[in-house]
Amino acid sequence: MRIIFISNPGNLSFTLTPNKIEHKGRRWVSKMRYYPNSKTLSIKKLKLDRMKIILSLINELHQQKYDLKVFDPREFLDLFISKVGLIEELNHWTPKINLILQNYYDGTPPVLSHNDLVPENFLIKEHQIFLIDFEYVSYNHYLYDYASFTNELYPMAKKREFIKLLNLNHQELIKLNQLMQYQTYLWAHWAKYMYQASRERKYLKLMKEKIEQLG
């Protein structure tokens, strides 16, 4: 179960997990220990040496074996679309996203994945980088985490630099791009759902950014 992994991931030295997890209503709520003098990853300051470390962390995570479910991309997307409807500005993307979902795994075995590699989920403590916040951990396509992190990189030159480190073949590059498109489409609808639920403008801003990112 995901909650067991979050509270006790075993001997994964590159992870930091909550020191308290409790059930409130229909939700699990976790609390992280406070680490003084720690900071989250800065994409603006990200250099090649740290890209290599992050790539190593992702690769190590993918080697782990846990009793967790396999990610269902259609089910997860529909979870938000069923609540907020399709974003009108992204209607022209829907047929392409449907094609991506039809051949999502392409017969490749899924690997243990973090599934949300935004900069805030990398914590730098005592000059070491740790992965945190495993809320969405599951088995997923082996390129999903790479796509997740690549989507966060800017400018384009930094994206290219990280993708080059992946050493992917032509078909893998196509798949990486498709997963990036799916994720952007997904998180746009997630942000719309979060905005309608909370009315926090940061989610409206994120939705608009994702819409613009897809074009």
Automatic annotation (TrEMBL):
Gene3D superfamilies found in the cross-reference section: 3.90.1200.10
Pfam families to which the protein is assigned, alphabetical: Choline_kinase (PF01633)
Source organism superkingdom: Bacteria
InterPro entries according to UniProt: Kinase-like_dom_sf
Protein name per UniProt: Choline kinase
Biological source species: Williamsoniiplasma luminosum
Lineage: Bacteria, Bacillati, Mycoplasmatota, Mollicutes, Entomoplasmatales
